[in-house]
Specification:
8 helices
Length: 303
């Protein structure tokens, strides 16, 4: 019978997560760079992944972190929900700052001449500065593109840490499922973005490889942290990080769904149904699918 606290099984799943996310990251990014284009199926896959993130955040990460922190820290105060709320606020602030910088860069690129004189002067100088302007434009695009790559890599390392820091089998499997789907969607989106760059394929391939390796790196770091810490400290670290992840993923997923509602690339009902499907899948993974007929599994592994 499958048990929830078998360290060999937990580590086997984590090693599988390293291999799987590496494969998915390489496959989706290179495929998108070479042949793919955005489609309705890609949009729906992103919405489904957002629904899975909501399910993981609300039904698993937040709940499990609260139980662990009540047991190892205090049951007199909701430490887990507090960490989750702080994470939501910090993620919102970081997202707003990133959007402001992106908007400022876009306005700089697209701003028209202030007046007729400026337009005339610009026209007279166009022949002499056309090449430097073109180079500057490409430089701005590459800078923004590299910023996008860095954001994706950091997010993937964070996701890998969530998997690597899990202390129970069901949470490890649940996060692998959620991040496996999200890794594919994120890799596809990154590949489509890289495809627009006017740079040599060698640099694009380097970005794809770094992105693909980021989640396995996070899993490895998380496993190392748990291996080097004692049982109590390990549970506190894992639970705190799970609460942080719950808040961050909840904000990101809801924001993505709001953007899809505004973009209207698919119908509003399609967004709602697809997102609900993602939440529903994560709601039945445990205990219905992972532990069928087993009513004695542990929610936390305390030894």
């Amino acid at each position: 019978m499958t048990t929830n606290c078998d360290n060999k099984q937990i580590n086997a799943v984590k090693i599988g997560a390293i291999c799987f996310t590496l494969f998915i990251g390489l496959t989706t990014t290179f495929y998108a760079v070479k042949r793919a284009k955005s489609s309705v199926a890609f949009v729906l896959a992103g919405i489904y992944a957002a629904g899975q993130f909501i399910g993981v955040a609300c039904l698993h990460l937040g709940w499990a972190s609260d139980l662990a922190l009540m047991h190892f820290v205090t049951d007199k105060y909701p430490v887990g929900p507090l960490i989750c709320v702080i994470s939501i606020l910090v993620t919102q602030m970081a997202s707003a700052q990133a959007k402001e910088e992106e908007s400022a860069q876009t306005r700089t690129k697209e701003s028209p001449a202030d007046d007729e004189a400026t337009m005339r002067d610009s026209l007279l100088m166009s022949q002499s500065i056309s090449m430097p302007e073109e180079n500057a434009k490409r430089s701005d695009e590459h800078t923004f593109g590299m910023t996008f790559v860095v954001v994706m890599v950091v997010h993937s390392v964070f996701g890998g840490l969530v998997i690597g820091l899990q202390t129970t089998l069901h949470m490890t499997v649940i996060n692998l499922i959620a991040f496996g789907v999200h890794k594919g969607v994120a890799g596809y989106a990154l590949g489509l973005d890289l495809k627009k760059w006017d740079i040599e394929f060698k640099k694009i391939a380097s970005c794809c490889i770094v992105f693909a390796c980021s989640t396995p790196l996070g899993v490895g770091i998380g496993m190392g942290v748990l291996a080097s810490a004692n049982m109590k400290v390990g549970h506190i670290i894992a639970a705190s990080f799970a609460a942080i992840a719950a808040g961050s993923f909840l904000y990101i997923a809801v924001t993505e769904l709001n953007e899809e509602y505004r973009a209207r690339r698919v119908g509003k009902l399609s967004v709602l149904v697809t997102a609900f499907l993602g939440v529903s899948v994560m709601s039945v993974i445990f205990p219905v699918i992972l532990f069928p007929g087993n009513t004695t599994h542990e929610v936390m592994c305390l030894s």
